Amino acid sequence: MSTSVRKDWDTYFMDIAYMASTRSQCSRRRVGTVLVQGKKLLGTAYNGAPSGVPDCSEAGCMIVEEYEVKLVDGKEEMVKKQRCVRTIHAEQNLLLFTDRSDRVGSTVYVTDQPCWTCANMLANSGIVEIVYHRPYPKDSDKVTEMMKQKGILFRRLESYEIPAGIVEDITH
Length: 172
Prior knowledge:
This protein has helices at 9-21, 56-59, 90-96, 100-103, 116-123, 140-150, and strands spanning 32-37, 40-46, 63-72, 75-84, 107-112, 129-134, 153-156.
């Protein structure tokens, strides 16, 4: 009889979030998320175009350019950023397709640290914890501060390893 090591709950649910991300057709980054209450899985979601609308793999990315002021070597500089607006973020889809009553007191596992907009939405959704794997430096400081103000546990699984067979080849 073989004895295998059982995965801890954080690893188990993050694995499921990464599996959900494989449904995404985003060519820039595939993101998955799951909603958990206790140890019960209540929903999964991934990023993509609205249902029935061609996604980025079919119609191409819908890129918009934005400018952001950044402090570089003590000087303010305008930095050009590009983002796709065709895609609904995984966290937004999770909120659209789950009930608020299920979210109250729940945990969200997400492959990537939420952006500012998604963090705002999650902060008002009733969840009490967000667990993520890959960082999103652009919004990290302000998202972390907001979660602290809201009393939402916000933590990164730094030592997590993506399951074999799921390739982390989509980054920005």
